UniProtKB/TrEMBL annotation:
GO terms for cellular component: plasma membrane. It comes from Desulfacinum infernum DSM 9756. InterPro entries: AAA+_ATPase, ABC_ATPase_HisP-typ, ABC_transporter-like_ATP-bd, ABC_transporter-like_CS, MetN_ABC_transporter-like, P-loop_NTPase. Coiled coil: none annotated. This is Amino acid ABC transporter ATP-binding protein, PAAT family.
Amino acid sequence: MTTATDSAPVLTVEGIRKSFGNKEILGGVDLSIRRGEIKVLIGPSGAGKSTLLQSINFLVMPDAGRICLEGRPVDPSDRKGLCLYRQQVGMIFQEFNLFDHLTALGNVEIGLVRVKKMKRSQARERAMAELERVGLGVHAHKYPAELSGGQKQRVSIARALALDPKVMLLDEPTSALDPELIGEVHAVIRDLGAAGMTMIMATHQIGFARALADEIIFMENGVVIEQGPPDKILDDADCERTREFCTKITELGGR
Ligand SMILES: Nc1ncnc2c1ncn2[C@@H]1O[C@H](COP(=O)(O)OP(=O)(O)OP(=O)(O)O)[C@@H](O)[C@H]1O
Ligand SMILES: [Mg+2]
């Protein structure tokens, strides 16, 4: 749990709508996050959590609404501006999306060289520091095939961190992992939160959500049903549907 230090929002999501074909997936979502805040998205499969996170990063192009970073609206048709925005809003996926032909170090370094135009030696130094931050200094020269799922996910977190993001979006970062590997990734995310990183994370890991989140957002059918502090949403929600979902997910032991 963190204390937000700034009252002005870092990121605002205003009236985001998205349909695929004639099916509306996001029906107008508003969200606002302050510096150092951690918001966790929960909701049934198909609620639109991934679509929302991808819309925030414009991997999915919203049909309506806007996203503002530090008060400035993002124009996704401005390629240069979008590229800059994406560096500032890091995205972590369920699958790690690493380059198999590059070592852990190479995977972190490549964005610094290609995107940030850093010199190779400087990029290497920074990449190494980020790998150490996620506890992977000794594995820097291994290829993804030589790393566990938890280690691969930590490399992808290091890769995002190297670009100095202002906000991190995490989409079920541990759901592809064997249970015994989840803890090491949770520990890295917890450390990030303690260091003041602003994060929006979708997860089905309810115990982790409770411990980490400043606010939990319950989504269903593409809209936010209810949001509030973890104990309120998970144990004492106002909406019947939120209570039903949270009871079920809590009884299932956190999945
Ligand atoms: N590219 C796409 N084309 C068509 N439909 C899509 C596409 N992406 C997502 N959908 C649909 O949008 C709905 C919301 O999906 P989304 O992946 O955002 O849900 P979710 O809340 O992340 O679910 P989960 O908990 O299973 O990850 C689903 O019905 C899905 O089938
Ligand atoms: Mg999803």
